[in-house]
């Protein structure tokens, strides 16, 4: 009889060294205006034939949240370059955030820019990887079932492992 | 980019894509999808109106390994002929 030693298989690397160029982004903001830049950059990268992955952390995780990605808002307070120009005192009044959000959505619509949900689909269609920050999920009480399909739940080490093989890394 | 007038009438595009009215990243994204349907060596005709395309399309081709055979700045629009490379 042979002793069989069961060893835990080594955890698979989240990604081997890429053969193509790679973009690694961190999306840390959960406002409508800040959801666009990482999605635009990632969808562009895959269009160039690169690999691309986005690590959604803290408020940025709302971009992957099924019930929230269509409800992202633009801050009317402390956002001097925002779509409505208000003194901060007025930016705090009820309805100001909704108004700023409406204006931003109208701008985007008039310019024929896709909505966040469409950008998410565009990214996934060309293979952008979505990493959901596991710490954010724990801190904010977000379950895997709350997220859109196809996300990799990952901690910082796993993302850094991915980002270490990237040619471009940006924090949004 | 160097503006090369399109005078070679012998180039027959295998496909044509009109991205008029679309801003970055849509022309690049749609061009990638369109090139995905072509064979290496086939040519895509692309029309854009985003001024950024004058830099974006050659940059995209460099990154992907395609070749911009011709690019024409027509003021309010741009026209490109892109030959799909073997790497993509």
Helix-strand makeup class of chain B: alpha+beta
Shape of chain B: globular
Element string of chain A (H = helix, E = strand): EHEHHHEHEHE
Global structural class of chain A? alpha/beta
CATH topology of chain B: Translation Initiation Factor IF3
**Shape field of chain A:** globular
Quaternary arrangement of the chains shown?
Answer: heterodimer
Low-confidence stretches of chain B: none
The average pLDDT of chain B is 92
The CATH architecture assignment of the domain at 22-70 and 115-171 in chain A turns out to be: 3-Layer(aba) Sandwich
Instruction: List the domain count of chain B as a whole number.
Output: 1
**Low-confidence sequence ranges of chain A:** none
- CATH topology of the domain at 22-70 and 115-171 in chain A, anyone? Hypothetical Protein Ychn, Chain: A
How many extended strands of chain A? 5
* CATH superfamily heading of the domain at 22-70 and 115-171 in chain A: DsrEFH-like
Distance between the termini of chain B: 22 Å
Strand order, sheet with most strands of chain A: 4-3-2-1-5
Written description of the protein model:
The complex is a heterodimer of chains A (172) and B (88). Chain A has 172 residues and is of the alpha/beta class. Chain A has a domain at 22-70 and 115-171: DsrEFH-like (Hypothetical Protein Ychn, Chain: A), CATH 3.40.1260.10. Chain A contains 6 helices and 5 strands; from the N terminus they run E-H-E-H-H-H-E-H-E-H-E. Chain A has helices spanning 32-47, 88-91, 96-110, 116-125, 134-140, 156-164; strands at 22-27, 51-56, 129-133, 151-154, 168-171. In chain A, strands 4-3-2-1-5 form a 5-stranded parallel beta sheet. In chain A, strand 1 (22-27), helix 1 (32-47) and strand 2 (51-56) form a beta-alpha-beta unit. Chain B has 2 helices and 4 strands. In chain B, strands 1-2-4-3 form a 4-stranded mixed beta sheet, with helices on one face. The longest helix of chain B is centred in the middle third of the chain and has 12 residues, at 53-64. Chain B is globular, with a radius of gyration of 12 Å. Classes of the chains: A alpha/beta (172), B alpha+beta (88). Chains A and B meet through helix 1 of A and helix 1 and helix 2 of B.
């Amino acid at each position: 009889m042979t002793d069989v030693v069961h060893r835990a298989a080594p955890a698979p690397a989240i990604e081997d060294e890429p053969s193509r160029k790679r973009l690694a982004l961190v999306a840390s903001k959960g406002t409508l205006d800040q959801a666009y830049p990482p999605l635009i950059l990632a969808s562009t990268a895959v269009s160039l034939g690169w690999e691309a992955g986005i690590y959604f952390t803290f408020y940025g995780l709302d971009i992957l949240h099924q019930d929230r990605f269509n409800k992202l808002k633009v801050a009317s307070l402390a956002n001097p370059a925002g779509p409505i120009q208000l003194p901060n005192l007025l930016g705090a009044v009820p309805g100001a955030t909704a108004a700023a959000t409406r204006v931003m959505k109208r701008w985007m619509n008039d310019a024929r820019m896709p909505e966040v949900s469409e950008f998410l689909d565009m990214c996934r269609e060309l293979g952008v990887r979505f990493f959901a920050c596991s710490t954010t999920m724990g801190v904010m009480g977000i379950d895997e079932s709350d997220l859109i399909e196809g996300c990799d739940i990952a901690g910082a080490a796993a993302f850094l492992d991915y980002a270490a093989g990237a040619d471009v890394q940006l924090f949004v | 980019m160097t503006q090369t007038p399109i005078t070679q009438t012998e180039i027959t595009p295998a496909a044509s894509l009109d991205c008029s009215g679309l801003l970055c990243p849509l022309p690049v994204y749609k061009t990638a999808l369109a090139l995905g349907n072509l064979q290496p060596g086939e040519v895509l005709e692309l029309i854009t109106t985003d001024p950024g395309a004058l830099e974006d399309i050659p940059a995209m081709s460099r990154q992907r390994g395609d070749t911009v055979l011709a690019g024409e700045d027509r003021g309010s629009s741009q026209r490109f002929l892109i030959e799909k490379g073997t790497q993509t």
